[in-house]
UniProtKB/TrEMBL annotation:
Keywords: Decarboxylase, Lyase, Pyridoxal phosphate. The modification N6-(pyridoxal phosphate)lysine is found at residue 295. This is Glutamate/tyrosine decarboxylase-like PLP-dependent enzyme. The keyword Membrane does not apply. InterPro entries: Aromatic_deC (IPR010977), PyrdxlP-dep_de-COase (IPR002129), PyrdxlP-dep_Trfase (IPR015424), PyrdxlP-dep_Trfase_major (IPR015421), PyrdxlP-dep_Trfase_small (IPR015422). It comes from Actinoplanes italicus. It comes from the Bacteria. Signal peptide: none annotated. One of its GO terms (biological process) is carboxylic acid metabolic process.
Amino acid sequence: MSDEFGDRAFDEVLTRTARIAADWLGSLDRRPVGWAVTLDELRERLGGPLPDGPVDPLTVVEELVEAAEPGMVAIPSGRYFGFVIGGGLPAAVAADWLTTVWDQNPGLYACGPSASVAEEVAGEWLRDLFGLPAGSSYAFVPGCQTAHLTCLAAARHHVLRQAGWNVEEDGLCGAPPVRIVVGARRHATIDRTLRLLGFGTATLTVVPADEQGRMDVTALRTVLPGGPAIVCAQAGEVNTGAFDDLAAIADVTEAAGAWLHVDGAFGLWVLASPAVRHLAAGAQRADSWAFDAHKWLNVPYDSGVAFCAHPEPHRAAISVTADYLIQGGAGQPRDAIDWTPGFSRRARGFPVYAALRSLGRRGVADLVERCCAHARTFADGLAAVPGCEVIGEVVINQVLFRFGDDATTDRVLRHVVDSGEAWLSGTVAGGRRAIRLSVCNWRTGDDDVRRTLEAFRRAAAS
């Protein structure tokens, strides 16, 4: 067994894997963006009984690639526009590989000092890039869902502590009621997070939103009561990319003594760009922020970040101790277990560190602005396609459009996806079917935009 899985095997299999990976990336411009296999075919290709004994690692990798390749979606392609998913910057991908090889657990400084310090540095770089308050605490998590969980757990602790209740010790039974205020067009992960934290969705106070998905601030003023309250605002509605009026919402929440949380999964990245940061004006006045790095920063999946302007409730809600853990010590190292809802986890700070360092401040701004410019080009090009209606304004990187009735919209989308030229997804806007196009990849260039527009022209003509 030791010979089969020794250093020589590692060298051989990793060298071969690097070649396979480079070939995959090199094929992106030629290959269909979608998959080319059925569910049953994939189950047959990847299935079968578990082997009785060991299988050579190189054989496992070669056969895995052969079996799985037809079911791969070319998400790293410049013509993948689905679900607000970014690609992978070269430095971030390489750092992610090293993260796997190094196999550090940054939950405790003692388990991976370099991984812990890389998170410290990347966290401070992000805080500075977004202009968040000095001293804000942070957590590297799998994605925006877990970032919401982290932030809203801190919010729950804070507002109940102000009301004289210790939720970590006494739970929610008998606790003072907490008013949770959300917008009508919030992301589904907000509701899911609140369920996990013990706040039933039937208890939410839902504020109306306009046709672009922006929370009605006038209505917010009428529903926000005294007593413990948490308001969830949005920077970048998932269909339209629209932003709540965060400055006005901050005025209301500050006056009411409520906690303001911002869902900025992809939209918060506008704070890195002088050209579009005005869209999130007032965001820095919030109490917590959740966003993804695997979207606009183009870090490989999975990578989300939570920030909290109040470290004390953040730590109180999340931290944990045990006799066997080695926490703190000389120089007061940062133990991520105090801030992140996970004991053992991947060292996500390395790829984020690499992405930020490779781009620099100007590079992040350019990436955001370039994607926004491509979205505007898409909107102009689609508006010229016979039968196409671009819905609403293009705020940042999201384009929403439809063709005639629902059936026609779905047929045109299916035609484009089946052609392999691009991949994007359908949605519902105003009770009708629509198509959502998200420009979020560093690879997307003028030719990708041209090819995708041509695919829609052909689909509409057919």
